[in-house]
Every structure is written in structure tokens, then in C-alpha cells.
Amino acid sequence: MIQEGVSLFMSLIKRYNVENNILKHFIKFYWFMESDSEISIDNKLLPVNNTDIIINYSSPVTYEKNGKPVIPDRVHFNGIRSSTEIIRQSGKVMVFGISFYPHGIYPLLKIPMREFAGKIENLDNILGNFSGFIADIMADNNISAKERIRVMEKIILEKMDCDCLDNREKKIFSDFYVNNKGVKDFCVKSGVNIKYLERLFFKYTGVSPKVFSRITRFQRISREMLYYRNYNNLTELAYDGEYYDQTHFIKEFRKFSGVTPGKFLNDRETVKHLLSEGEY
User: Fold this and answer.
1) In a 3-state reduction of DSSP, which class is residue 259?
2) pTM, whole model, 2 decimals?
3) What is the DSSP string of 102-116?
4) What is d(CA 57, CA 74) in angstroms, rounded to the nearest whole number?
5) Conformational region of residue 264, where left means phi above 0, alpha means psi within -120 to 50, and beta covers everything else
6) How far is Cα 148 from Cα 98, in angstroms, rounded to an integer?
7) 93-119: average pLDDT
């Protein structure tokens, strides 16, 4: 019997911390999802401000983008997207994910992330057999999950250019993540040229700082709507999300979610939110 819905996902997902101190600057966490029985996934993926590598050991995953199906290889990643996608998968599920910080995957790929914005890319196209090697290590059930992660981290470090971001660039990203109140205001207070900031974001994240800020704001307010707060009206939502007014809030929300805020609250929970910022 196939179990439908995503409420059971919380019990299927295990999250692991990054072990290596250097990689902690680039990778948020790892996650692993495995089901003992058959399940059916047919859910909406919301825009988020980070990129995950997906290693799928089970039946193929199908993404639907603008009504067109995309079936990637078992090891793939999604560039930062500004619109929703549908994900479908059926059967017993076994998926491992590496969740990077917004700027974190560039040192591994060494290709400007602007090329991958809104796209699903097979990792083999960029890293060759390296991705398959990682997948084989993670599939080895003879060692513990933590030991598998340690071995994988060693391999990632050998491929990763951890020094490609200088200290100034690292500080700009970390400050922007914390003080994400507006691009112009940030540049003035930080003494950063806005064109320079845009080049950094396009190179390392794939999107402009303005789009990144909008996605981050949507990500925060949509999560709060689902899990943390009860809202009485759209005006309260718009105020809490720091939108100009209710009209601006509805317009932005529809752009990123594809539905109105009211319909969003009535829809099924999304895989994305259940994974607590992890991709998939």
C-alpha cells in the first residue's frame, strides 16, 4: 500500500551536522531520508536561498518546471530558483542531501552559479566520476552514517577550493545574511559598491542580491505562516514580512508560491518546509 502525503516525512528524515571545521563555512548540514514502505511524493518545492546536492538511491525523481517534466541523474543539484516546481517520486525512498550555504557550492563546482540559476543540473556533467564516487561511499551500509560523512568530507575537501573567497568576500556574505534589510542600505552602511556586490552574488549564488533578499523574505514569511504563528489578516502578514503594504505582499507571494497567501495556508505542507531548509 502506498502512503500518500508528506506528514510522515518528519519521522523519515535524519539530519547530520558537518564534522569538518573548514566545511562548516560552506555546508549547513546533511540530511538523509529513508522509508521502509512505499510512499508517494507529489508536492510543491518553494523558492529557497540555498543549493543542495541530491544523491538518490531509489526510484527516479521527476521535477516539473513550467509544465515540463525533468528527470535528472541520481546525483544532481538545483540552482537557486525564484518560482515553484513540482516534485514526484513513488516507491521506497532513500535520498541523501548536502545542504550548502548560498555561496557554499561555488568552491566545489568552480563555475559561476549564474549559469545554474533556476536549473536542475546533473553533477556528473561538472565533476565527472566524482559524484558517483560520493554516492557509492554514502551507500556503504558497512560503516556508520557519521563515518560515511567523514570519508565524504575528506573527498569534498580534496576537490573544493576553500580559499577562492577572500576574507572580505566572506564577511560581505555573512553580514548580508544577517543584515538583509535592503541592498542600497547595506551598501551604504558597509561601504560596498553596489555593482561589486551584484557581481559577487551572481558569481557565488547565481542571483542578484535584490532577488536573493526577496527570496529570503518569502522563505521566512512562508515558514512562519505554516509553523510558527497564527495570523488574523493579510495586513498583519504584510507588516510582519516587512512588505510595503498588503498589495505588495500578495503580488510578491504569488510570484514565488504561485498562489495567494490564503490558498497557500490551505494547501498541503511542502517537502521543502519539512526538510527545514534542505533541498528536495
Assistant:
1) coil
2) 0.86
3) TTTSHHHH-S-GGGG
4) 7
5) alpha
6) 13
7) 94
- Residue 154's alpha-carbon distances to 125, 137, 150, 180, 242, in angstroms, are 21, 12, 6, 33, 42
- State the Cα–Cα distance between residues 44 and 272, nearest whole angstrom: 8
> What are 243-275's pLDDT values in tens digits?
888 888 889 999 998 888 888 877 655 544 444
> Looking at residue 31, what DSSP letter applies?
E
Q: Which residue has the cell 551500509?
A: 141
Do the bridges between strand 39-45 and strand 3-4 make them parallel or antiparallel, or are there none, so unpaired? parallel
Strand order in the sheet with 75-78: 13-16, 27-34, 94-100, 52-56, 75-78, 120-122
Every domain of the chain and the residues it spans? 3-163
The Cα-based distances of 59 to 102, 234, 258, 260 in angstroms read: 28, 41, 28, 33
CB 153 within 8 Å of CB 18: yes
Do residues 8 and 39 touch, judged by C-beta distance below 8 A?
yes
Grid cell, residue 14, equals: 535524519
